[in-house]
Write a sequence for this structure.
C-alpha cells in the first residue's frame, strides 16, 4: 500500500491509501466530512439570526461548523446575490 494525498472521492480530493491491486482505502475522517457536505447540499438549512449589540449575527448549525472546519473568530466572505446571500469560506 502506498499513501496518496490526491485521491478523488465524490468530486473532492482527499487522502487515502492505494494498493497495487487497485483497491483504494480513503481516510475515513475526510471521507465522512465529504459525505456530510454532500448531504447538506441537498437540504435547506434554517438558521437563526441574532444580535450582539448593534451587530446582526448568523448562527450556523454545529454540523455545518464541523463539516467546513469553521472556527470561532475565523473570517468568512459574504456575497450578496440576486436570490440571496452566499457565505464563502477561505
Amino acid at each position: 500500500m502506498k499513501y496518496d494525498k490526491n485521491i478523488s472521492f465524490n468530486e473532492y480530493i482527499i487522502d487515502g491509501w492505494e494498493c497495487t491491486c487497485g483497491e483504494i482505502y480513503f481516510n475515513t475522517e475526510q471521507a465522512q466530512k465529504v459525505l456530510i457536505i454532500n448531504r447538506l447540499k441537498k437540504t435547506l438549512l434554517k438558521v437563526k439570526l441574532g444580535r450582539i449589540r448593534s451587530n446582526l449575527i448568523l448562527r450556523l448549525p454545529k454540523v455545518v461548523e464541523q463539516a467546513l472546519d469553521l472556527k470561532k473568530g475565523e473570517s468568512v466572505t459574504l456575497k450578496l446575490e440576486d436570490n440571496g446571500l452566499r457565505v464563502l469560506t477561505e
In short: The chain has two domains: 1-43, 45-90. Residues 28-41 form the longest helix (14 residues).
